[in-house]
Amino acid sequence: MCSLEKRGNLFILTLKGYNMEHRLNPTLLNSINSALLQAKAESCPGSALVTISHGKFFSNGMDLDWVKAAGSTQGAHDRLFEALHCLKQLVITLLSLPMPTVAAVTGHAVAAGFAFVLSHDYIVMRRDKGVLYMSEMDMGLKAPEPWMALFRAKLGSGSTQRDVLLRGMKIKGDQGLKMGIVESVHEGEEEVRDAAMRLAQGLGKRKWDGKVYAETRKGLYPELCGMLGIASEAAILPKL
Questions:
Q1: Is the pLDDT of residue 234 over 70?
Q2: Domains (ranges, CATH) in the chain?
Q3: Whose CA is closest to 31, among 53, 15, 54?
Q4: What is the tens place of the pLDDT at every residue in 81-106?
Q5: Contact residues for 208 (Cβ-Cβ < 8 A; gap 6+)
C-alpha cells in the first residue's frame, strides 16, 4: 500500500501497490491518507513531506478493475463514488497539511494520479520517463468536480488548462517545466528523488509555523477549498 518514513523532520511517503501501477482504490487511498494524518500529528516547525514511488508508474489513476469487479452497473457506480470520495479526503488532507509537500514523479501520473500529484505544493519530475496525463477526454469521460477546480487552481494559464484537459496532452518533464507545472526535471529515478528531498529539506530549514503555512495554502485556492469544504481558521496573529 504505502509506507511512511521519518528522517529528522523530513517525512518520506512511498507508494506501494500491485504490479507497481499504484492504482487508486479505497484501500490504497485510505492507507495514504492515514500516513499523511500520522505525519501531520508528528509535524513540527521545519517538517516537510516527499511522496515517491518506484517503477513505470507514479500512479496509473483510479483502479477501474476494482470498480468493474462489482459485477453490476449500480455496483460499479457505487464503487467509483466510494473511490472518488476517498480521493477527495486525500486531497483535503494534503491541502491542509502543516508543511511543504513535494511529489517526486519518476513515472506516469495518469488521471486521478495526476490529480494526486497536483495536490502537492511542488512537483519534481524525471525528464524522459515521467509523464503527466489527464486521460478523461480520450476515454470519453468528463472529469468530475471538484477535480476541475483543482486543475483550474493549479494550472495557471488558460492554454495550459486547455492542453491538459481538452487536448489530453501527455506532458513530459521539459514540457511540464516550460508550462510552469513542474519545479525541476532530472535524468534518472534516483536523481529525481534526491532533488525532491533536497527541495523539501531546504523548505523545512525555514522552520515556518505549520498552521500559518496550511492556512496560507488554503488562501491561495479559495474556489477549490470552498468546493472541498475546507474551512479557513481565524486570522493568526504574528509573533511580536
A1: no
A2: 2-228 (3.90.226.10)
A3: 15
A4: 999 999 999 999 999 999 999 999 99
A5: 45
